[in-house]
Amino acid sequence: MRKHTRLLIFVVVLVAVAVLLTGCPPRGEEPSPQQKQEAKQEAEKPGEEKSPEPNAAQMMEDQAPNGCVSCHRKKDDKDYRLSAEVKNIEGHPQVKEDATLKDCIQCHGHESERPFRTILHRIHLVEGEHYLEKYDKNCINCHRVSEEGEVTVKGLEEQ
Q1: Which residues does residue 78 pair with via DSSP β-bridges, in sequence order?
Q2: Around Cβ 3, how many Cβ atoms within 10 Å?
Q3: Distance separating alpha carbons of residues 85 and 132, to the nearest angstrom
């Protein structure tokens, strides 16, 4: 009888190990040391906080159908165009009066030192009291979501 008990325990352990091994997904490829360093540097940039996850209410009403230029325009005696906004940034080169998001992306693309998406999300979602109060951090003011669920930036759809 002891022999049967040992055999039963052996089979149970063997099955448990097999289940554990087949149930665990394979490990993904480890990032290279350079990729790890770049990720660490990106995470440590001051003022580059991750933007908060949107909730359903933030993706409902589109108050800015034309994206940036819906808000960043001349209104009465105030100029909120991108060309006027960059004048407040020390050391920023002048841009043409009718500059658009496409112009900004020329220098502030995804691979640049200061990607526009990071700058904009920080200004509007983390630091921007005006955007919080007036637009409730609504994603749809700047982004479009297609029927297939693809998210694009208004003004950059054809890129």
Answers
A1: 75
A2: 7
A3: 18
> How many CB atoms are closer than 10 A to CB 32?
9
Q: How wide is the angle at C-alpha 34 spanned by C-alphas 33 and 39, nearest 5°?
A: 100
Q: Which amino acid is at 63?
A: Q
Give the 3-state secondary structure of residue 112: coil
Q: What is the pLDDT of residues 82-116, one digit of tens each?
A: 899 899 889 999 999 988 888 998 999 889 898 98
How many CB atoms are closer than 10 A to CB 127?
Answer: 13
Written as one letter, the residue type at 129 is E
Judge whether 105 and 115 are in contact, CB under 8 Å. Answer: no
What pLDDT score was predicted for residue 19?
63
Residue 78 DSSP SS3: strand
Element (H, E) at 14: helix 2-23
How many C-beta neighbours within 10 Å does residue 71 have?
19
What are the tokens at 150? 């693809």
CB under 8 Å to 96, separation ≥6 — which residues? 83, 103
What is the chain's alpha carbon radius of gyration, rounded to the nearest angstrom?
Answer: 26
Question: Which pLDDT does position 87 carry in this prediction?
Answer: 92
pLDDT tens-digit readout, 29-52: 555 666 556 655 555 555 555 555
pTM, entire model: 0.55
